[in-house]
Amino acid sequence: MIRSAKPIENKTWVNWDGEIQISPNAIFEPSKLEDLIDIVKLAKANNKTIRCAAQGHTESSLSVTEHYLIIVTNLNQITVQKHPKYGWTVTAEAGTSLSELDKALRNYDPPLTLDSETLPDILRVAGVIAVGAHGAKTSSGIMSDQLYSMKIVTGSGEVYEFSEEISKSEFNAAKVNLGLLGIIYSLTFRVQPMYNLRMTDIYVPINEWLNPKNIKNLLESSDGIELSYQPFNGFNQNDPNPLDPNRDLLWVKNWVRTDESVSFTQQQIEQLHETQNQNAINQYELLSSLLQNPEATPNITASLFSGNGNTSSVFQAPDAIHFFIAEYKIKLYFMEIGFKIDPDFSNVVTEFSHAIQTLYEFARKGKFPINYVIAIRIVKSTEALLSTTFNNDPKTLYCYINFATVIGTPYWEEFTQLLAQRYFDKYKAKPHWAKKWEFIPNVKTYLSEVLSDQIKKFEKVRAKYDPSKIFFDNKSLQDIFSHALGS
């Protein structure tokens, strides 16, 4: 019997971009731990399966189910604790947004912060952990690597705690679990005293700046870097050769920890965010017009490019990490692939340059698959088994290359499929679980092979905590696991 988490009758769930719409048997919006336990027991009694959703920002099918869908956003309690080893930890229930978590830590005495987070602050903690999401700070790895422990309601309806101290092998399965171990109830993160970051933005000619030495030197002197390419930003319709990549600039961003004072008051930052929101909406509306007029892409994207001034300012860590605040209504396709970086960083340059060259090859054929951004971030490896960046060597670095365009942009799938296949063939690269990847030809067979060893280790943990497969309700994951396990 459900004590208070009543199912929502006749309701359809839609993810953030509107591309996924489902009407499962029941949707629940629990508000406390007991609700989660009761829902699992109800599912067992009625022979139903369960999937979960948080902010709905995941673009792949991970939350799709015909049976029970649990929306965890009402689970948002936060508790800060003194810790004998780590100084401080914070426990957040599954549906806590990163903005709520930032606010609670910033207002604590003393002010605290996470070491790194994802760029969007609207995401919920269970969602970013379940899929192995990451920020831009290299040494922080994925957000899951800041976990101290986590509590999951498993297939028996019991609550189990996972941590490195209890069992490192099981913790490495739980840290990126894709919802396969149960319902994440709470997450406890290691946190640290609030600190400041100097965030610097420069715009440089791609053909002059983009080389392995520059990237390596910048990374070694920074806490994190991001390289962004805004398509056709050097386009000049009055030039005899308007589509000339040699005129394009690269947006280079880096963060450096500093003891300097912040450059803006919180009120000024809030005003900055309001301006960013409005500008982002205006740009999105203009880019959306390209769906009916794609040949105008170079002219429009060049007109929107703001690479006319370098800046450097100091922010508190959360403000620097969430440097761009955009309205939820901006809907983009994302595909992100992670691959192991060569020691000399040469393959980072090779693949970034190749992606831009390929974009121009498409453009010369009248195809404009990217109108938003191609961006690169670099993070260290993790021992989380199902992470895109799994590696037992902690010194290994991975390059995430992300392709973003307005939803519905023609030829986006053709373009990203081509590049994804290249990364698969050359580097045994893996896609970000939360973004689009299921459209890539033969990707499930490929992932079952490249993740075979990790899946076999993960499956031992999964079978222990959900032997009845209550949470194994996802066709893509079923296909990947069954092939990897030979079942």
From TrEMBL:
<dbReference type="InterPro" id="IPR016164">
    <property type="entry name" value="FAD-linked_Oxase-like_C"/>
</dbReference>
<dbReference type="InterPro" id="IPR006093">
    <property type="entry name" value="Oxy_OxRdtase_FAD_BS"/>
</dbReference>
<dbReference type="InterPro" id="IPR007173">
    <property type="entry name" value="ALO_C"/>
</dbReference>
<dbReference type="InterPro" id="IPR016167">
    <property type="entry name" value="FAD-bd_PCMH_sub1"/>
</dbReference>
<dbReference type="GO" id="GO:0071949">
    <property type="term" value="F:FAD binding"/>
</dbReference>
<feature type="domain" description="FAD-binding PCMH-type">
    <location>
        <begin position="20"/>
        <end position="194"/>
    </location>
</feature>
<dbReference type="InterPro" id="IPR036318">
    <property type="entry name" value="FAD-bd_PCMH-like_sf"/>
</dbReference>
<keyword id="KW-0274">FAD</keyword>
<protein>
    <recommendedName>
        <fullName>D-arabinono-1,4-lactone oxidase</fullName>
        <ecNumber>1.1.3.37</ecNumber>
    </recommendedName>
</protein>
<keyword id="KW-0285">Flavoprotein</keyword>
<dbReference type="Pfam" id="PF01565">
    <property type="entry name" value="FAD_binding_4"/>
</dbReference>
<dbReference type="GO" id="GO:0016020">
    <property type="term" value="C:membrane"/>
</dbReference>
<comment type="pathway">
    <text>Cofactor biosynthesis; D-erythroascorbate biosynthesis; dehydro-D-arabinono-1,4-lactone from D-arabinose: step 2/2.</text>
</comment>
<dbReference type="Pfam" id="PF04030">
    <property type="entry name" value="ALO"/>
</dbReference>
<dbReference type="InterPro" id="IPR010031">
    <property type="entry name" value="FAD_lactone_oxidase-like"/>
</dbReference>
<comment type="similarity">
    <text>Belongs to the oxygen-dependent FAD-linked oxidoreductase family.</text>
</comment>
<dbReference type="InterPro" id="IPR006094">
    <property type="entry name" value="Oxid_FAD_bind_N"/>
</dbReference>
<keyword id="KW-0560">Oxidoreductase</keyword>
<dbReference type="GO" id="GO:0003885">
    <property type="term" value="F:D-arabinono-1,4-lactone oxidase activity"/>
</dbReference>
<dbReference type="InterPro" id="IPR016166">
    <property type="entry name" value="FAD-bd_PCMH"/>
</dbReference>
<dbReference type="InterPro" id="IPR016169">
    <property type="entry name" value="FAD-bd_PCMH_sub2"/>
</dbReference>
